Amino acid sequence: MAPSHPDVWLFSYGTLRQLDVQRSLFGRALEGHSDVLRGYTVSPLRITDADVIAKSGTADHTVVHATGDPTDCVSGIVYHITQAELAAADAYEVADCKRVAVRLGSGLDAFAYVDARGSDARR
What we know:
Strand order of the largest sheet: 1-5-2
CATH class: Alpha Beta
Number of helices: 3
CATH architecture: Roll
Strand content: 35-45%
Distance between the termini: 51 Å
Number of strands: 7
Order of helices and strands: EHEEHEEHEE
Largest sheet: 3 strands, antiparallel
């Protein structure tokens, strides 16, 4: 018998909060609750991937990057999702983003998509 893979928490501050994106990716509307990601700030991100633009309805997205300053804070929603849904979210996110493990303001351990481009991308 294969080991079971527990569900995970995913923190979203951007388009993964949109109902149409959730239905397109996961086949359902996700239920979540508000939380915060400390030590990060939000920056604009221009998307060029046609599939992502079609699903989200816009090329103007956001991405978070670590600042190391605990007073910086990003508000969002944390969702309880399956491993298969996490894989679908990974496929949706563009190369400018990477999934990392984070601890949210509530103390919950979750995944979040952060800037994969390095500090030079924000200058």
